[in-house]
Amino acid sequence: MPPICPVCNGLVPLVFDCPRCGRPVGDLGRASDALGPYAPYEPGHEESRTGGSMEDMACVHAVRCESCGTGSEVTVVLHP
Ligand SMILES: [Zn+2]
Ligand SMILES: [Zn+2]
User: Fold this and answer.
1) Count of structural domains, the chain
2) Is residue 49 part of a domain?
3) What is the whole-number distance in angstroms between the Cα of residue 76 and the centre of ligand 1?
4) Confidence at 14, pLDDT banded by 50, 70, 90
């Protein structure tokens, strides 16, 4: 049985502060599912997509600050 993401399963809330204004950001769900009107604009995160193996042990969530609109990604490490 593969490890499950506790955030996706509602076991724990995703807590992350906006890097710009410090307010808590809203969880948009898994980044792979949330790629809609928002295109990631931080090239530093691209490496996590090409790695492959990390995706089995982590769940990347897309988040967006409701206050200033800053979009980001939060990696939730899974514990098997
Ligand atoms: Zn998740
Ligand atoms: Zn913000």
Assistant:
1) 1
2) no
3) 7
4) very high
Confidence of residue 59 (pLDDT cuts 50, 70, 90): very high
**Ligand nearest, relative to CA of residue 60:** 1
For the segment 29-40, what is each residue's pLDDT rounded down to a tens digit? 999 876 555 555
**Residue 18: which domain range?**
1-35+55-70
- In the reported structure, the alpha carbon of residue 67 is separated from the centroid of ligand 2 by a whole-number distance in angstroms of 5
Does residue 43 lie within any of the structural domains? no
Contact by Cβ (8 Å): 53, 4: no
Alpha-carbon torsion (34, 40, 42, 46), positive or negative: positive
pTM of the complete model? 0.68
Ligand in closest contact with the CA of 69: 2
